[in-house]
Every structure is written in C-alpha cells, then in structure tokens.
Amino acid sequence: MFQQSHLPKDKDATPTEQWGWSIQDFITENFWYLLGILFLLFLFLYARYSWRKRHEKNQQ
Known about the structure:
The chain is 68% helix and 0% strand. It starts with 14 loop residues before the first helix and ends with a helix. By secondary structure, the protein is an all-alpha fold.
C-alpha cells in the first residue's frame, strides 16, 4: 500500500489520513445529491406500491 509522504512513519494513519475522506465529510459535501437519490427511491417505491394496490383491486 502506498504511504503518503506527509504522514509520520512511526504510527499508523487515521482513517481520514489513509483514505483522504471520511463518511461525515462525504455526507456533508453530497447532502443534496443523497437527498435527491432518497427522494427518487421513495417515489419509485411509492409508485410500485400504488400500482400493486391498483392491480390487486382490478384482479378481484
């Protein structure tokens, strides 16, 4: 694994130093994109549920 030159050699890197980002940073920077994805997922699942209910009613 490559070691970044600015890290001290006598101790292990923290996850942020090792990967260059953290989950909190990712969520903070991409909040609106993640919210949009969740909205589209909700919309898809609601449409699927609605279609299934309508389809079951027509079968009877």
